[in-house]
Amino acid sequence: MSIVAVGTVAFDTIETPFGKAERILGGSATFIALAARYFTPDVGIVAVVGGDFPGEYVAMLAERGISIDGLQFDRTGSTFAWEGRYHYDLNDRETIATHLNVLTDFAPEVPNTETDARILCLGNIDPEIQRRVILQMEKPDLVVCDTMNYWIEHTRDCLLETLKLVDCLIINDAEARQLADQPNLIRAAHTIRKFGPEILIVKKGEHGALLFTDTSVFSAPAFPMENIFDPTGAGDTFMGGFAGFLSRARDYSLGSLRRAVIYGSAMASFVVERFGTERLMDLTSDDIDERVAGFRVLCEIPEMAPLHNA
Is 229 in contact with 16 (CB distance < 8 Å)? Predict the structure, then answer.
């Protein structure tokens, strides 16, 4: 197995200035897996759903080559559901309702056939659950993890224990400052990397992303978008594209990590164009290559003559 994505499979109800979608397919594991499968055919999903989860969604995941052996079914419960509203500043969202439902007692079990995955992607769930999943794996090349302000604030000690087992942490800029207790992102990155992750990616929404490693800082722009309908799942889609590229490349050098950030950013730029997972259903390799080429143009800096020769 190339990639195992562990997290949530959910119903999302989303309202933005551009429309509303009710009880559509969402969840961190869903977005990660749907993005990663464009790069590798071996992607598994580990999550739990209730008796109300439509069979057509299960079939859709399977038809797109995603292994559902790790998808648990609680027939007596209801699927995790989230409802949120975005205003004209799409970087901020208001949570209207969260129904944990079957997620309350979720105990992920990675199928024996998938414990040898090269890359483990941990969506935003309880850090204690994340740690238990890591311990089920054999020896993944890379453990990639997400978290959020709630876990940083309420389960900090547990989160720090989990981070000791993580190779790459992906969080947003506010979460990085909160986790490190540092207002400056560069200093925050130094602090966070001492917690365990050798690789840190800080997402900055419409301002792109920063990659921190031992030897460098890499800044990737965000793709200029005319139409942004729904930012939900963009971070998880980024993780899926990032991990998917690395799995395909089988290379974790600095150059490969930088390319992976661009591919992750490209995938995230697609998902925001429609509600939920809709845009991830019909992409082509040409679509992705064209978007990545667009990123290369954005990043290109003409050769500069030394000032004293100008």
Answer: yes
Q: Tell me the residue type at 116.
A: D
63's tokens: 């038809």
Q: Is 29 exposed, middle or buried (0-12, 13-18, 19+ CB in 10 A)?
A: buried
Instruction: Give yes or no for a contact between 20 and 274, defined as CB atoms under 8 angstroms apart.
Output: no
- Tell the residue number behind the tokens 């939900």, with chain if given: 232
Instruction: Kindly tell me the burial class for residue 260, based on how many C-beta atoms sit within 10 Å of its own C-beta (0-12, 13-18, 19 or more).
Output: buried
Q: Determine the Cα–Cα distance for residues 57 and 64; give it in Å rounded to an integer.
A: 11
pLDDT digits (tens, 9 = 90+) for 236-292: 999 999 999 999 999 999 999 999 999 999 999 999 999 999 999 989 999 999 999
| Amino acid at the residue 289 | D
Quote the CA–CA distance of 153 and 176 in Å, as a whole number. Answer: 12
CA–CA gap between residue 127 and residue 45 (Å, rounded): 18
C-alpha 230/C-alpha 185 separation (Å) is: 27
Say if CB 168 and CB 142 are below 8 A apart.
yes
| Contact in structure between 295 and 220 (CB atoms under 8 Å) | yes
